[in-house]
Each structure stands twice: as C-alpha cells, then as structure tokens.
Amino acid sequence: MRVSKMLLPSALALFAAALLAVPSRAQSDEPGCRPEMAGLMLPIQRANLTHPVNLAKGEARLTFVGHATFLIETPGGIKAATDYNDYVRPPETPDIATMNKAHSTHNSRNPDPAIKQVLPGWDPTGAGAAKHEITLGDLRVRNVPTNIRSYSGSTDFDGNSMFVFEIGDLCIAHLGHLHHPLEPGHLRALGRVDVVLFPVDGSYTLDQEGMVEVLKSLQAKVMIPMHFFGGSSLNRFLARSQDLWPVERRATSTITIAKSALPARPTIIVLPGN
C-alpha cells in the first residue's frame, strides 16, 4: 500500500490535534446491543476458506481474511465482509460488504455485483454522515460515524464508520480505520460490545496508547487485533497491554463465538493474518 504524505510522522501530531479539538457528529441516540436483544490495482488475494456454515443458534463464525477484512457468518447462512476492497477478499461473495474510505485497501471500486448490500462508511454525496441500519436474515448491521484525516491535511468529518454486527444477542463491533479516541456519544451509539475488531498499527490509525484506552472503554470480552502489517506492531501492542488482558494466540484464522461461551474476563485473541 502506498503511503500518503499526510500520514508521515511529521504530520500526524497536527492531524491528531485537529481531530481531538472537534467532536465527531456520531448519532448518540442509536439503539445499542442490549442484553435483552436476541489507486494502483493489485491482483485480488482470497483467503483459503472451505468450511460450511454449520453454526448453532446464537453462534457466529469470524475469519480474519487479512488487513482489516473479516468474514462474519451467521447460523442462517448470511455472510458479511468488513472493509471490503479490491486487494484482499474472502473466497465467497458476501451478502453484505462494509467499506471505509481512508485508503483503497479499505474499499472497492469494483464490488462484486452479486453483493446484496454494499454499505460505505461515508456519504458519497458529501451531504453528511452515512446512516445504515439494515437487517438481512439473522444479521443486523448498523454504523457509527467517525472522523478521519483527509488527504488535504484537514479533518474529514464523518468520513469513516465503525460497523456493528448483531447476530442474536451477540454484538460484534469493527472499528474500521479509526483515527481518534472515542467520545461518550460514540460509546452510547455502539452500545454493548461483546467482540471488538480493532487496528493496532499505531500510525496510520489511532496510536497504540489511544487504542488501549478505547478498549478499556468498550470492555468487550473478546478483542481481536487487525491492521498490524506483520508482527512488529502487533508485538508492540501486546507488550503495551500485557498487564491488562490475557492473550490467546490461535493457529487458524477462524474462530466460532457465542454469547454464552465468551471468556469470563476480557481477552485478546490473535488470529493469523496481517
């Protein structure tokens, strides 16, 4: 991925200051997950996934495809892909694709026309924040807007989104290309989070210290890192957070999760990927 000039270390501090100075206009009245609620085009790479759904009621399957893309599968056979792009894709066409515009590795210029719902995390018309709340089969998906650093060096208000996936009473939040700390309005809009998928690179997205604070505020029982460009940035994050949460490293990129089987205390689960 080509590094934009606006992401150079000398500019990051200025952009971060601008982001923190102006609050995001995320919708704070969004109903959250509640306990009672049941550029250069590169060849597309596809993860090697051959498993059938075979999920019991209340379960969800997550597969780390790579970068910021996860495949989320429901017992009813609905499939969603996060930060769907033209570089790394799941082998199967998802029913729902969420996207963010921070970089071309987080969105697609040519989404598969068979996708039933393509949900950009920004409003392509520029009229304001994206607003998505859809239900397809046994999966509900909604977004919470966030700000990003624009390529011109300013703040792009509501330029990205975090997406929440609700499968029965299980709530999964994908933080996308998050660039700033979460405010109370974001937390109210997200609602209860059982599983959080979060970036840990610490430079293109929010710095690692800030990401630790985000995770503390969410209090999700399962925390799965993404967007770490190899092992060094991931290991730095794990070293920074080792006194806060236990870490489980899995040998495969797929995990099956159920609300009833969540760990007793918040746990970081590392899936193979990049």
From TrEMBL:
It holds the Pfam family Lactamase_B_3. Residues 1-26 form the signal peptide. It comes from the Bacteria. InterPro entries: RibonucZ/Hydroxyglut_hydro. Keywords: Signal. This is L-ascorbate metabolism protein UlaG, beta-lactamase superfamily.
